[in-house]
Amino acid sequence: MKNSNTRTWTWYGLAATLVWIAALTVGAVAFVAASEAARARGQDATFLQEFLGAPLFEGFRQDGKFGVRPQWGLLLLVVVPLFATVLFTALRRRSP
Question: Could you list the residue ranges that cross the membrane (predicted)?
Fold first, then answer.
């Protein structure tokens, strides 16, 4: 007899998880790239990291210090996976 409390991975659960992992990976890579570009530069400058045209992070070097500022495109890395998760959940409820 199968235990009804045991849940297995379904296509929609796996798809939603993969979308979130991809978004986190893109964000982490953009953050590291902006930070490394700012650190490697010897003079004051800014370095924009984009993904599909949306600015994610802006690396900067000013007065010998470097850092990274978030940009508006970073919201897309939260909103897109959130909508995908809602869509996959809605599809799950419709399927038998």
Answer: 72-91
